[in-house]
């Protein structure tokens, strides 16, 4: 699935977990705001070898796919996946990386990896503000 071809947005929301699900639900009314990809889809595309590609080939393809995004929201309930995605988009040169996490202990590391903003959200809180922010 070519994410960039769906709506031609310059914003991507990527991740997994309850907070990610809440954000996706809150912006589903206005999908023109952002393209959405879950972490499992990203990992599957990265490790896909059915077409004969190596992991490096797949990485190059993902870099091409994601190169036009100006803003990326990384929302993951796993610090390893959050770090991986933040480093990937930072290396890609994404202008604005926003990380949403429920763990404030890793603020400095996310910043060092290239996140412009690190937002803390408690588990179970509503994240409707993300959709409201772009509409207002």
Topology:
Blueprint: H1 3-7, E1 11-16, H2 18-27, E2 35-38, H3 39-47, H4 55-66, E3 71-76, H5 79-92, E4 96-101, H6 107-113, E5 117-120, H7 129-135
Parallel strand pairs: 1-2, 1-3, 3-4, 4-5
Describe the structure.
The structure is a single chain. Strand 4, helix 6 (107-113) and strand 5 form a beta-alpha-beta unit. The chain has 7 helices and 5 strands, in the order αβαβααβαβαβα. Strands 2-1-3-4-5 form a 5-stranded parallel beta sheet, sandwiched between helices. It has one domain: 3-Layer(aba) Sandwich (Rossmann fold). Helix 3 (39-47) crosses helix 4. It is globular. 47% of the residues lie in helices and 19% in strands. It is α/β, with parallel strands linked by helices and 136 residues long. The protein has helices at 3-7, 18-27, 39-47, 55-66, 79-92, 107-113, 129-135; strands spanning 11-16, 35-38, 71-76, 96-101, 117-120. This is NYN domain-containing protein. It comes from Metabacillus indicus (Bacillus indicus).
């Amino acid at each position: 699935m070519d994410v960039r071809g769906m709506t031609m947005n310059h914003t991507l929301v990527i991740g997994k977990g309850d907070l990610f699900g809440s954000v996706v639900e809150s912006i589903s009314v206005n999908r023109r705001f952002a393209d959405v990809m879950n972490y499992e889809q990203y990992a599957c595309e990265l490790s896909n070898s059915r077409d004969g590609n190596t992991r490096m080939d797949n990485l190059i393809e993902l870099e091409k796919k994601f190169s036009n995004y100006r803003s990326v929201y990384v929302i993951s309930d796993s610090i390893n996946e959050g770090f991986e995605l933040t480093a990937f988009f930072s290396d890609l040169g994404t202008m604005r990386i926003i990380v949403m996490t429920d763990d404030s202990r890793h603020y400095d590391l996310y910043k060092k990896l290239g996140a412009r903003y690190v937002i803390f959200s408690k588990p179970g809180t509503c994240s409707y503000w993300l959709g409201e922010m772009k509409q207002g």
